[in-house]
Write the structure tokens for this entry.
Amino acid sequence: MTGRGRPRKTENPETKYAKSKTTLEEIKQDLPRSQRKDFTEEKHNGTTKEEKPKKREQRKPNHTDEKPSVQSTRKEQTTKHFTEEINKQQRTPTDNTKAPVRGTKAKTCAGRTKSTEQSAEETTKIQPETPTDTTKNSVKTTKARKSSGRTKSQQFENETTMTQIPKDKAKTRADKAISPEKFTEETVKMKPESPKYTGEACGPQHRCEDKARVDSLLFTTLEKLKIKKNDRSDAAKVINTIKENIIEHIKNNIEWFKDVEPLPTGSYYENLKISNPDEFDVMLAIPVDRVDITPFGDDGAYYSVGLKRGKSDLKKFQEAYTLSASKMLEEFRQEVKKCVKAFPEWEVTKKKKGCPAVTLTTKVKSIFISLDVVLCLKVKSSWPPFTNDGFKIEGWLGTKVKRDQKRTPYYLVPKYEGKGTVEYNGVQAKDVWRISFSHVEKYIMKNHGSEKTCCEREGERCCRKDCLKLLKHLLSLLKEQDPSFEKFCSYHAKTTFLHACCTRTKDCDWRASRLSQCFQQLLDDFVGHLEKGVLPNFFIPDQNLLSGSSRTKCDSLARCIKRERDSGFPIFK
């Protein structure tokens, strides 16, 4: 080995190969695959013996005759082969004398160069997406400055490398050379990603216009559904007058009714009434302290009631330890009819089978109004076990609200389904009572936000009630078009809405600005229940509210709703 600055006596092996017509790479490719490894090792061993460490340190990063091609057909094979060759050269014992450490930069006369692995990574990063013809896309970039000390072999190798880098992707500098491995890695990273679809993005222009049109139609429909203040005031006066007279009359003429407690319920008192103030409900509750209730059937919605020991004015209606709902309702109905005779503008409608209410009708100006007076029992005890898995409002209104509401009494109304003569455990259906949580529903509708300030003056407004109003309106219009949908009622819509609120619990899920999306999501929920034929009672999950409707009718109603939704709700126009 010669000292620094002394003239070289031996000729550089690479200079010899550069002068020859074939390069080392071509010779190596001509050899059989089994002999290429030995050929590589012999080459490096010869270089180590004859070359100066200083010269080798300068030239090693510039060995680019084995850099991978960017052609699509041989990209993977060439990159893998080049990496294997580089690893073999770095593992050669004789090449560890003063070889630059991976990642460090060695100073050369042309500037600074990067390690071989970094160059390969950069080649990969800026390599373009696989073109159909890479030879057309590959353009020569500006060559690096020539050094007076470089050999012809080095210049030939640098020129070969430069032609493989696309001009529009690679950023080369005259004083920096990029290693093949880093070059490859950078090319992969710079490949354009395929665009991802997002649901919020607006599609074609006509879809944006349709959405705007639907939004406008829904807001216009809600304006039409608002009750006029004068109509509301006129109806309230008439209803309050007849209601007070009925309560006063019954208290004075029915001994077991003297402790009655009126409880206004229904959509009007929940601020959910639409179009006209034409339907009102009032429950006249009789408090009972000590009763035994026994489930009638398997769904947990109907019960037979028995009075415990003690004095009670209701004992005259008890037969075989069962309080007869039909006898109590009959006496109550007769007294209401006597009271209404003093008000000729009111009429008592014909009794409906299984209905717990006495229905009165009248006309205020041009609006026909009905009032349902409902007899019920107020039970001051814990809710029945069938309610344990229902009323899932913890995530929506909170655990405290649920606990407080479950401490309130529940109500039993004289209602049954099917034939009244059907017996279960010795009790006829006409004498059973159905459990009611109208008071809890009323509380929820008036306190519907997860935040206390929801829909208040200082709070943000939501679209919960607007969505329910639209669903009720759509259902009523479809029932007008097809009377066979008569069994589907507004309580089905309300129950669907309560389940939806427990699923989408936050006020931000129901922003007023998202009315169209929220309403169509509520329609999807309702259609899903119809197609399955199952709509669980919100308080009693074992009761299916759609059990009385055939699957054919459920499917038919679901198709009608989807048709209206997909066509932009022409029924609202």
Notes: The CA atoms of residues 347 and 361 lie 5 Å apart.
